[in-house]
């Protein structure tokens, strides 16, 4: 460009003006975007249902499958009705190393157990499992294992 400056003395001014105009446009565009986003978020927050998911279908009935008697899933589920359960408790009861697999089977059966990590000595963490509150209200099923009522 230096070679052209001698022939066209105003070219450098033109480039500077063009650069300043582009910067001005970019800043103005960013400003208006921020204003537009601020207005749209303020408008959304005015609605009472902000952040809630609307449902068109009725909620499904809780109908988990009860595990067969004398299975590890049935033992684990009985313990989960009493309170949280972790691998150390499961081992002390003599049921083996595979609590996570048993819990996953309960999940497949529709029980939806919750898991969270708890700390034990030496900064180690293990999973602790528990049933959601709505599942703890379910009464024991009839012998055929169909849907059961909420007590």
Please tell me what the overall shape is. elongated
Strand content: 5-15%
Largest sheet: 3 strands, antiparallel
- Derived structural class: mainly alpha
Number of helices: 6
Mean pLDDT: 77
How many β strands by DSSP? 3
**Level of helix content?**
40-55%
Ends distance: 85 Å
Unreliable parts? none
Which value, in Å, is the CA radius of gyration? 32 Å
Sum this structure up briefly.
With 151 residues, the chain is mainly alpha-helical. It is 48% helix and 11% strand. It has a three-stranded antiparallel β-sheet with strand order 1-3-2.
Explain what the structure shows.
By secondary structure, this protein is mainly alpha-helical. Among the domains are: 2-41; 72-136, Arc Repressor Mutant, subunit A, CATH 1.10.10. Helix content is 48%, strand content 11%. It contains six helices and three strands, in the order H-H-H-E-H-H-E-E-H. It has helices at residues 2-7, 11-45, 72-82, 87-92, 99-108, 133-136; strands spanning 85-86, 114-120, 124-130. Strand 2 and strand 3 (124-130) form a beta hairpin. Helix 3 packs across helix 5. It is elongated. The protein starts with a helix and ends in a 15-residue tail after the last helix. The model has no long low-confidence stretch (mean pLDDT 77).
């Amino acid at each position: 460009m230096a070679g052209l400056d001698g022939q066209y003395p105003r070219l450098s001014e033109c480039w500077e003006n063009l650069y300043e105009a582009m910067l001005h446009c970019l800043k103005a565009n960013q400003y208006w975007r921020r204003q537009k986003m601020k207005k749209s978020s303020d408008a959304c927050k005015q609605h009472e249902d902000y952040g809630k998911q609307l449902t068109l279908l009725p909620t499904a009935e809780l109908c988990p499958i009860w595990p067969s008697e004398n299975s590890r899933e049935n033992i684990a589920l009985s313990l989960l009705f009493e309170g949280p359960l972790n691998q150390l408790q499961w081992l002390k009861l003599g049921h083996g190393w595979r609590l996570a697999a048993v819990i996953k089977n309960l999940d497949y059966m529709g029980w939806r157990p919750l898991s969270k990590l708890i700390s034990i000595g030496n900064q180690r963490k293990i999973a602790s499992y528990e049933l959601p509150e709505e599942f703890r209200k379910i009464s024991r099923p009839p012998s055929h294992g169909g849907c059961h009522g909420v007590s």
